[in-house]
């Protein structure tokens, strides 16, 4: 087995393990949906609809999936309940495909973007700092020079936590402490990154949702100041969401996409929840690429999101 195949196998095993709670819960609900039935009829579809909604796929996305299955049943006339898993896999995969959810092969720096600037947003407690740390590790382990900017200056703990991660991963950090101007931190970070030839810059920002206008103004100011150093920065605005909060993650996505232009999503803590279906709902509703998923506590348990692998792992019997 080649080295690449070995890492792929490890990644797949980590994904399977990380989604095990969702899978166990989901399959239990599907099993109850088809008990005593030999064909997919209206009752089975009603039960399947309930199973999807209670797995936090979301009402709107669930209805799309059910409608697709109804069309398959009507077209094929006779669909055995044993085929339901295969049909589900195909239709969910097709839905994600239509929503332009990109499949990254690895943690890559886009050509012509040096430094590649990622601005990270998200409320406290969703795993934002941990995601930044793991993202730094992933890029560094692939040979890239990484620099962090501690622009979440609203909480002293945020700066301290990011500093701990910078030491753990052994990447430089620019910080000015609690109460500093976030835009000033971002400016200094990008200036330093350009001077030192860094490949990747990750800027942490505060995620206060109690006043959306203030959040919008702050993030806009950070962007404008970044562009004084690198005209097209940030290249990615990454929203971190806690998958274990289910529908609350969808609500947070609504709030942040209203406040700033989010270009990609990282969905964390999928290993500790049975609500992994939220990945499907968020991808479908917001048409924003899911870029990374967190499936464990280890440093390497942040994975690039591959829709086919995700659906296969979730629905594999």
How would you portray this structure in words?
The chain has helices spanning about 5-20, 20-35, 40-55, 60-75, 85-100, 130-140, 155-170, 180-195, 210-230, 245-260, 280-285, 305-315, and strands at about 115-120, 145-150, 175, 200-205, 235-240, 265-270, 290-295, 300-305. The protein is an alpha/beta fold and about 325 residues long. Helix 6 runs parallel beside helix 7 (about 155-170) and helix 8 runs parallel beside helix 9. The longest helix has 18 residues, at about 60-75. The model is unreliable at about 1-5 (pLDDT under 50).
Q: Which keywords apply here?
A:
317 residues; elongated; 8-stranded mixed β-sheet; 12 helices; single chain; alpha/beta
Please describe the biggest sheet, giving its number of strands, its sense, and whether it closes into a barrel. Answer: 8 strands, mixed
Structural class: alpha/beta
Q: What is the count of DSSP helices, taking H or I runs of 4+ residues?
A: 12
Instruction: Give a count of the beta strands, DSSP E runs of length 2 or more.
Output: 8
- Order of helices and strands, N to C? HHHHHEHEHEHEHEHEHEEH
Briefly say what this structure is.
It contains twelve helices and eight strands. With 317 residues, the chain is an alpha/beta fold. It has an eight-stranded mixed β-sheet with strand order 3-2-4-1-5-6-7-8, sandwiched between helices.
């Amino acid at each position: 087995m080649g080295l690449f195949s070995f890492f792929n196998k490890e990644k797949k095993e980590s994904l399977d393990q990380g989604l095990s709670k969702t899978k166990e819960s989901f399959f239990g609900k599907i099993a109850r949906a088809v008990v005593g039935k030999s064909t997919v009829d209206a009752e089975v579809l009603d039960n399947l609809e309930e199973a999807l909604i209670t797995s936090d796929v979301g009402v709107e996305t669930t209805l799309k999936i059910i409608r697709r299955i109804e069309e398959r049943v009507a077209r094929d006339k006779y669909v055995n309940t044993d085929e339901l898993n295969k049909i589900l896999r195909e239709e969910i995969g097709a839905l994600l495909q239509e929503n332009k959810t990109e499949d990254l092969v690895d943690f890559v720096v886009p050509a012509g973007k040096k430094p590649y600037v990622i601005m990270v947003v998200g409320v406290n407690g969703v795993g934002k700092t941990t995601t930044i740390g793991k993202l730094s590790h992933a890029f560094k382990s692939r040979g890239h020079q990484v620099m962090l900017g501690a622009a979440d200056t609203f909480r002293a703990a945020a700066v301290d936590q990011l500093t701990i991660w910078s030491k753990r991963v052994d990447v430089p950090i620019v910080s000015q402490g609690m109460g500093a101007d976030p835009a000033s931190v971002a400016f200094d970070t990008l200036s330093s990154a350009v001077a030192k030839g860094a490949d990747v810059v990750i800027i942490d920002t505060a995620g206060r949702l109690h006043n959306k206008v203030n959040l919008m103004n702050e993030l806009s100011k950070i962007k404008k100041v970044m562009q004084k150093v690198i005209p097209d920065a940030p290249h990615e605005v990454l929203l971190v969401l806690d998958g274990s909060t289910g529908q609350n993650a969808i609500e947070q996505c609504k709030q942040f996409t209203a406040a700033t232009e989010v270009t990609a999503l990282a969905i964390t803590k999928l290993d500790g929840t049975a609500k992994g279906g939220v990945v499907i709902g968020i991808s479908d509703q917001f048409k924003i690429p899911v870029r990374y998923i967190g499936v464990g506590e280890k440093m390497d348990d942040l994975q690039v999101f591959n829709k086919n692998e995700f659906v296969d792992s979730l629905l594999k019997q």
